[in-house]
Amino acid sequence: MGASGSKGSKEEFTYEDSDEGFTEALKVNLQRLIAYAKSADASLQREVAEKLANEAVKPDRQVQIVELDGLQLLLPLTQSKDTEVQRLAAHALANLSVNSDNQTKMANEGGIDMLIDLLASDNEHVQRQAAKALANLGVNVDNKEKIAKAGGIKPLIQLACSKQVGVAVEAIAALANLAVNDANEVEIAREGGLEPIIRGAKSDSMELQSQVARALRNLSVNAENKEIIIRLGGVEALQLLVRSPNDRICQQATRALVNLGVSTSD
Predict the structure, then answer these.
(1) Which of 82, 130, 162, 255 is disulfide-compatible with 167, CB 3.0–4.6 A?
(2) Do the beta carbons of residue 94 and residue 129 sit within 8 Å?
(3) How many CA atoms lie within 13 A of 10 on its CB side?
(4) What pLDDT shows up at residue 187?
(5) 117 neighbors 93 (Cβ within 8 angstroms)
(6) Are 143 and 103 in contact (CB under 8 A)?
(7) At a CB cut-off of 8 Å and minimum separation 6, what does 213 contact?
(8) What's this model's pTM, rounded to 2 decimal places?
């Protein structure tokens, strides 16, 4: 075992631009990379996390990286003192969490708690990637409950209030996914989540409007929530979204209004 922080160590994670080249390089170097991740060399940690974040965009790589124990490398990096390392690690996890099998593995290996911790970051880029990863993890039925039990709903509501549109988009997307669970649907409303979501309908961002419409559709199933949504001006907000030129926004807003018992022709 040589010194993992040696000058030449940065060049050890190289591979041919092919499936075989990447898989072999990751297999051979993974233990070395885990050692690098635990080292104090933040620049090396950044390089490794960025490499995996970029590769994890590809569906086949999402499988390979996790099968080769890449989570052992990335999850500890979320706890780095270096903000950029945190961001890149969260970005890699967000990409990996698109895969349904990975969603279960990440939850089982402590990823939910680590990502929730990152929501408290004062860096908007870290917040956005962590919320995005939790949104993906929240697609999984079991993870909806796990994220709520781990205390994820409250910080996501806080980020739904963010003036940074990208952060608000991912936070509301996560809440929309978590709301496909009866208990979570109630908790999101009781923790004050409906107000910032409804407010997002007035945003100029079509991406934010889309997540708002989806969230309100899911949150308007509960009878108690219906009353709160109406009281907070949710009907007017949804009627605004129904007029969107975007078909998906229009459809989701229409379904939310139907849940509220409001005619879309009003």
Answers:
(1) 162
(2) yes
(3) 9
(4) 98
(5) no
(6) yes
(7) 201, 238, 241, 244, 248, 249, 252, 253, 256
(8) 0.88
Beta carbons of 241 and 253 less than 8 angstroms apart: yes
For CA atoms 252, 136, 43, 9, the dihedral sign is negative
Q: Rounded to whole angstroms, how far apart are CA atoms 130 and 88?
A: 10
148 pLDDT higher than 50: yes
Contacts of 191 (CB under 8 A, 6+ apart): 153, 154, 157
Q: What residue ranges do the domains of the chain occupy?
A: 19-150, 170-265
Q: What is the pLDDT of residue 52?
A: 87
What band does 20 get if pLDDT is binned at 50, 70 and 90? low
C-alpha–C-alpha distance, residues 60 and 32, integer Å: 23
Place of tokens 């910032």: 196
Among 166, 102, 180, 82, which residue's Cα sits nearest to residue 131? 166
Q: Which amino acid is at 198?
A: I
- How far is 24 from 20, CA to CA, in rounded Å? 6
Rounded to whole angstroms, the Cα distance separating 40 from 5 reads: 8
Q: Which CATH class is domain 170-265?
A: mainly alpha
Tell me which fold the domain 19-150 belongs to: Leucine-rich Repeat Variant (1.25.10)
Residues 114, 72: contact at Cβ < 8 Å?
no
What confidence score (pLDDT) does residue 48 get? 83
